[in-house]
Amino acid sequence: MLAESAENFLRLLEKSTSGAVFNPWWQVDKENDIGPRAPRIRREQLRAYLCERLKKARLAIVGEALGYRGGHFSGIPMTSERILLG
Asked: What was the pLDDT predicted at 37?
């Protein structure tokens, strides 16, 4: 049941509109990825992450591009991978 829920979510991500938005779980970033398997690796990591939390969490918050101050107003500690890696 839990794995099926994660799979359904990943299928929704696959169906997201292509174009100006990069889909890291299904598209390859030729400049920054380690190779063509990178999206599959990201999907496997996301699947494992979701399956572990589906047992415990009642809510998932998805965020992106919070800015240089992270989640200053929301209090949610998020930052950019680019900022962390310099």
From this structure: 95
pLDDT digits (tens, 9 = 90+) for 51-64: 888 888 888 777 76
Question: What's the whole-number average pLDDT of the chain?
Answer: 80
Give the integer Cα–Cα distance in Å for 2 and 50: 8
**Contact by Cβ (8 Å): 41, 24:** no
- Angle between the 2-14 and 38-54 helix axes, to the nearest 10 degrees? 140
Instruction: Please give the pLDDT value at position 58.
Output: 85
38 and 28 in contact (C-beta within 8 Å)? yes
Residue 54 CB contacts under 8 Å (≥ 6 apart), including other chains? 2, 5, 6
Contacts of 22 (CB under 8 A, 6+ apart): 29
Residue written as token pair 């999206």 = 39
Residues in CB range of 3: below 8 A, 6 or more apart: 47, 51
